[in-house]
Automatic annotation (TrEMBL), chain A:
Organism: Pedobacter cryoconitis
Key words of the record: Signal
Residues of the Copper-binding protein MbnP-like domain: 35-248
Keyword Signal listed: yes
Keyword Transferase attributed: no
Signal peptide segment: 1-22
InterPro entries: MbnP-like_dom
Name of the molecule in the record: Copper-binding protein MbnP-like domain-containing protein
UniProtKB/TrEMBL annotation, chain B:
Binding site for heme c 1: C77, C80, H81
Domain of life where this protein originates: Bacteria
Every Cytochrome c domain range: 209-334
Name of this protein: Cytochrome c peroxidase
Organism: Pedobacter cryoconitis
PTM section of the record: Binds 2 heme groups per subunit.
One cellular component (GO) term of this entry: periplasmic space
Cofactor info, note text: Binds 2 heme groups.
One GO MF term attached to the UniProt entry: cytochrome-c peroxidase activity
Residues the record lists as binding heme c 2: C222, C225, H226
Cofactor(s) required, per the database record: heme
Length: 271, 347
């Protein structure tokens, strides 16, 4: 009798655990309900966490560098279930500026229908259409205020800067302000009145290996990316700070953009 | 008798005062918005995206002449775009900005911008509503941040009121500032030169024989690039200027195409009488110098325009008499009304 009681306890315990699991994982999503999906962009450099100003890193060209500023646009987010059901986040809610200096900005939160999403697609940069839209349609992070420091817009040659990284390196030549600085301002949406290069990168990630996103009401599914900015330097073309301390609106920027499209590594998903 | 005179004088002053006031009121109620001149094509500027109102125009004008748009509150748009010089910076080869810093190009006119497909000598900007961001943030022009400009404006009750009148609420945003500036700039329409009056057959205006002869030469040898009635076709061309000391590569800076090297936007010829010096770097002080360039000094630099190398010669065939007649014709493109109109001036 005693042992039956014991078994009953164990069975009850197991049932409780299983039902708790199933509650978490198998609650049927109601696609009519929308819930929050969060994309976390956690910037790292190679094997180490990115630390603005204080961290020093070495690229494949053997150059030691520190990063003072890092920010980039994430936009046009799309999700797809295993069965191929796709949801495109309404464009107006789909522009984010991720800044290393601002922790909150590293979580891009969108509303999507409840569901289990296996594929996530986003744009690194700003689509060409938005680059040519009326100024009243460019609100929030898209307000084209230009400027050399934190601005993500080229005033002299209309268009957004998609990715901006600035820092110092002993290998960089001394700039007019007396600092050994490198500056990578990467943009280029293909041109308006004349075709030019296009550095808009679309990134599609299969979440199945590190965890699909189970989006349900009442909680937040967080897809955690590690963004390895070392990949901007080390890739198909190894970018040397000494050889190219300033990469802005130039054909060479295409090499940088081809490198940085592979920065995104899906580490895990918190459901 | 003396008293009667005084009384009459006082009374007439009173009437005059009344009249003056009613005139002002008339002017206020007759804001017409954008009016396409009869001899002009349809504008390129997307008027449907900017509702023109008198309050919007007045705000745009105030902003155009507002030195707070610059870092140290010294330079306004009007500093380098002076109305009496056809909204260019007379006497400066290249623009003269903040801290006496110099740009690398000659200030282009704020004129007939509603018909411009692109802006700046290299055409890097494609929307007038985005254009002012460039000079405001350029370190050698106004060297300011848009955010700072908005902060400064928000502190001034005058602007809070003006933005409210123009857009319905007190909000001061970059987009509103740009739209208001566009309203002012789009209304800087120059279409009242003698040429326009002749074309529109106004008040029996006709060209003199010399002007007519110059017009004929113009149509034959200049008109394909400086196309009527705007006197530019809006394209980018290399007109054979010797490469300057700063090796300005013009259009290719915006497109990065080697075939655009040394090409610059074809400027309009309207108001040339007020806009000396000439060319993208202001290298010619007189129109005579410009014509001499085309007649004798065209260089075979990369991407020289095909029209500058016809019949086995460089440049345009012009004898002294042709030049005189051309200069006579070009004077008919000066629009005195445009450079003196009070409504476009700093108040």
């Amino acid at each position: 009798m005693k042992s039956i009681y014991k078994y009953a306890v164990v069975i009850f315990y197991l049932l409780t655990v299983i039902s708790a699991c199933s509650k978490k994982n198998d609650a049927q999503p109601v696609s009519a309900n929308k819930a929050t999906l969060s994309l976390q962009f956690d910037n790292i450099v190679g094997d180490r966490n990115l630390q603005l100003q204080t961290g020093t890193y070495k690229n494949a060209s053997g150059e030691q560098f520190s990063i003072q500023l890092l920010q980039y646009f994430i936009s046009n987010i799309k999700v797809k279930t295993k069965d191929g059901q796709e949801f495109i986040v309404p464009q107006e809610e789909s522009y984010f500026l991720v800044k290393e200096s601002d922790g909150a900005s590293q979580f891009c939160k969108v509303k999507v229908p409840e569901g289990d999403y296996q594929t996530l697609t986003f744009t690194l940069g700003v689509d060409s259409l938005r680059n040519t839209m009326d100024i009243t349609k460019r609100t929030g992070v898209l307000d084209p205020t230009g400027g050399m420091d934190n601005g993500m817009y080229w005033g002299w040659n209309s268009g957004y800067i998609f990715f901006k990284m600035e820092g110092t390196s002993e290998q960089a030549p001394v700039d007019p302000t007396g600092v050994r600085k490198f500056r990578f301002h990467i943009g280029g949406f293909g041109g308006y009145s004349a075709p030019t290069f296009n550095n808009i990168k679309t990134v599609t990630v299969d979440l199945s290996a590190a965890g699909i996103a189970r989006v349900r009401g009442g909680r937040e599914s967080n897809v955690h990316f590690l963004v390895d900015v070392m990949k901007m330097f080390n890739g198909k073309t190894n970018i040397s700070i000494a050889a190219n301390p300033q990469v802005m609106f130039s054909n060479y920027s295409v090499n940088v953009a081809n490198n940085f499209s592979s920065m995104f590594y899906h580490d895990h998903t918190e459901n | 008798m003396k008293k009667l005179y005084l009384l009459l004088l006082a009374f007439s002053l009173f009437i005059y005062a009344c009249k003056k006031e009613s005139n002002i009121q008339n002017a206020v109620s007759t804001f017409l918005g954008f009016q396409k001149p009869a001899n002009f094509p349809q504008p390129v500027y997307k008027l449907e995206n900017n509702k023109f109102t008198e309050a919007g125009f007045l705000l745009g004008r105030a902003l155009f002449y507002e030195p707070r748009l610059s870092r140290d509150n010294t330079i306004s748009c009007g500093s380098c775009h002076i109305q009496s010089s056809g909204f260019t910076q007379h006497g400066h080869d290249v623009s003269h900005g903040i801290d006496d810093r110099l740009g690398s190009r000659n200030s282009p006119p704020i004129m007939n911008l509603a018909w411009n497909k692109t802006f700046m000598w290299d055409g890097g900007i494609f929307d007038l509503d985005l254009q002012p961001i460039s000079p405001i943030t350029n370190p050698v022009e106004m060297d300011e941040k848009i955010e700072n400009v908005l902060l400064k404006l928000k502190q001034m009750p005058k602007y809070v009121t003006m933005f409210n009148r123009a857009f319905g609420t007190d909000e001061i945003t970059n987009a509103r500032m740009m739209k208001a500036l566009s309203q002012f700039m789009v209304l800087c329409v120059s279409a009242n030169s003698k040429y326009d009056q002749v074309m529109r057959k106004e008040q029996g205006q006709v060209f003199t024989p010399d002007e007519q002869a110059g017009y004929t030469i113009f149509k034959e040898r200049c008109g394909s690039c400086h196309r009527e009635p705007l006197f530019t076709d809006g394209t980018f061309r290399n007109n054979g200027l010797a490469i300057g000391p700063n090796n300005d590569q013009g259009r290719s800076m915006a497109t990065l195409h080697p075939e655009d090297e040394y090409k610059f936007k074809v400027p309009s010829l309207r108001n040339l009488g007020y806009t000396s010096p000439y060319m993208h770097d202001g290298r010619f002080l007189t129109l005579n110098g410009v014509l001499t360039h085309y007649a004798q000094e065209v260089q075979a630099t990369p991407n020289l325009d095909p029209l500058m190398q016809q019949n086995g010669r460089l440049g345009i065939a012009l004898i002294a008499d042709d030049k005189l007649k051309l200069l006579t014709f070009l004077k008919t493109l000066d629009d005195k009304d445009f450079v003196t109109r009070k409504d476009l001036a700093e108040q």
